[in-house]
Write a structure and sequence with these properties.
Blueprint lengths: L1 H9 L5 E6 L2 E5 H11 L4 E6 L2 E9 L3 H10 L4 E6 L3 H5 L9 E7 L17 E8 L2 E8 L5 E6 L1 H11 L3 E5 H4 L5 H6 L4 E4 L6 H12 L12 H17 L11 E2 L10 H7 L5
Parallel strand pairs: 1-5, 7-10, 9-12, 10-11
Antiparallel strand pairs: 1-2, 2-4, 3-4, 5-6, 7-8, 8-9
Helix pairs in contact: 8-9
């Protein structure tokens, strides 16, 4: 069983792994240490690995959503690994066979869809920021409603637009993170940033993927999107496919927001007015 766990964990090194064992989700090694501290639950041990005790903690499957919510609010990503067969089926392969398991989704701050984990008073936007030929494009969507928007913007607008949207998670290419003129903004949003490889922001690949997704020959009918906006939209779709293991929710066609069309407020004003939190 531990060999299976380690193989799955290697594929998800940056996520806490909720490993289904019967009626519980178990966590091991560093995941167990981190989760037990974050959730204030008992840290125990199970067997040994390389002559060292294996830390372990667990949560009941029937109450997992509450624990997931707490972990997500503390900035963790959680890979949910389910049993994909019954123990009796595994035994047919031999008495020592391990029940088959696989990660069925990765829960992140911007990809939550369960009502129990969402704040009913606000949208939970997943956003992506891209650049192309010096222009910036921001796209954001709400997976629970399917609303999908994109907007061109310049660097001077970025902070105010982000404050107005208040995304739960912001995807940014690793290359864009290195730009000095955006350092202050990224520092302010560091707890919600999810760096992504630059390849996920390729505008041509994004255009083709969006045309395929919506069954159109061109995106012109959705609005005059620039390359940066298309790249941001494509990065969102790519990320959702990754975290939901290929199961895309129903998304509306992306709507282009013109510059100045949404209310822009700076972060300090947003906090003072308490528009998003009470």
């Amino acid at each position: 069983m531990m060999a299976q766990y380690l193989a799955i964990k290697r594929a998800h090194p940056d996520d806490l792994l909720f490993y289904r064992m019967g009626d519980f989700y178990e966590m091991f090694f560093d995941d167990a240490v981190k989760a037990s501290a974050a959730l204030d639950i008992t840290l125990t041990k199970r067997g040994k690995h390389e002559n060292e005790d294996i830390p372990m903690c667990g949560v009941p499957a029937h109450a997992s959503e509450g624990y997931l919510s707490r972990l997500i609010r503390k900035g963790f990503r959680v890979a949910v690994c389910e049993q994909t067969e019954k123990p009796a089926e595994a035994k047919k392969r031999g008495p020592k066979s391990v029940v088959a398991r696989e990660v069925v989704r990765i829960v992140t701050p911007g990809t939550i869809t369960e009502d129990e984990l969402l704040d009913a008073r606000r949208h939970n936007f997943l956003a992506a920021l891209a650049d192309a030929q010096g222009a910036l494009g921001l796209a954001w969507l709400d997976m629970s409603t399917g609303s999908f928007n994109a907007q061109p913007l310049d660097r001077a607008q970025l902070g105010a637009v982000l404050a107005g949207i208040d995304p739960g998670e912001l995807l940014v290419s690793e290359r864009l993170l290195e730009q000095p003129d955006l350092f202050e903004i990224f520092t302010e949003w560091k707890n919600r940033l999810t760096p992504q490889p630059g390849s996920r922001f390729d505008s041509e690949a994004a255009r083709l993927r969006l045309e395929e997704l919506y069954g159109v020959k061109a995106l012109d009918g959705f609005g005059g999107f620039g390359r940066a906006e298309i790249a941001a939209c494509g990065a969102l779709v790519d990320y959702i496919e990754l975290t939901q293991k290929g199961r895309l929710p129903r998304l509306t066609a992306p709507r282009r927001i013109s510059n100045g069309a949404n209310m822009e407020i700076d972060a300090a004003t947003r906090r003072n007015l308490e528009l998003t939190e009470t």
